[in-house]
Amino acid sequence: MKVTIDRVTLIGSENFVHFTTDVGSAVGVWKGISPNVGESHDVEIDVTERIVWSVSGDIALQNLYSIEVENGLVNLSGKIISMEADGGAAIEVAGSVILLDIFGYTGDVPVFVNLKIEKISLFPTGV
Question: How much is the pLDDT for 126?
Answer without folding.
Answer: 81
